[in-house]
Write a structure and sequence with these properties.
Number of helices: 8
CATH topology of the domain at 4-128: Nucleotidyltransferase, domain 5
Order of helices and strands: EHEEHHHEHEHHH
Number of strands: 5
Length: 181
């Protein structure tokens, strides 16, 4: 069994955008942060990856997003890179064969971002949504990555809605579920 990558995304949001499913005027789920951990088959973290991404259509972060994630506009302006560069960096981090696991439909968000930017969708056939396994194990079908420490009873890896901390939380929850990937 080989290593695998657990990743998480933070993407633009506004008050009520989740409930509206990002259907409000000008609302797009543009990636702002990608966090990932490369994990051994026994769930030992081998490497970590985190990058900020500058949204193209909505370059100004909402106050709601800043409060949720702790990512400031100044930090994004200073550290953020373009989506094409960010996805290429994630691809290099993951390597050519590692499966990419997420707690939710993050692969759809990557595809949406690629469509918006006119980019090919990476990781074809290598992504997997582990949300069904995690929610079955914790009994909460609405569980987000930031909720997993409380639901599974382990210490959080950092602030919720930080993509790297949430990727680590997903990996820790998967270790408790004990499935092989």
């Amino acid at each position: 069994m080989n290593e695998f990558v657990v990743y998480d995304l933070e993407y633009t949001a506004w008050e009520g955008s989740r409930a509206r499913q990002w259907s409000g005027p000008g609302e797009h789920r543009e990636i702002v942060q990608i966090g990932a951990v490369r994990v051994s088959p026994n769930f030992y973290e081998r490497a970590a990856f985190s990058v900020l991404v500058r949204p193209r259509l909505n370059p100004r972060l909402s106050d709601y997003f800043i409060a949720l994630t702790g990512i400031t506009q100044a930090r994004l302006d200073h550290e953020g890179i373009d989506i094409a560069e960010a996805l290429a960096a994630l691809d290099r981090f993951a390597g050519p064969d590692a499966p990419l696991l997420s707690n939710g439909r993050d692969a759809e968000v990557i595809a949406e971002n690629c469509h918006l930017a006119g980019l090919p969708v990476p990781f074809s056939g290598r992504t997997r949504d582990v949300h069904p396994e995690l929610t079955a194990a914790c009994g909460n079908p609405a569980a987000m990555s930031a909720d997993l420490p409380a639901l599974f009873g382990f210490a959080a890896s950092g602030r919720g809605h930080d993509a790297l901390a949430d990727a680590r939380n997903v990996a820790a929850a998967l270790a408790l579920v004990g499935k092989s990937y």
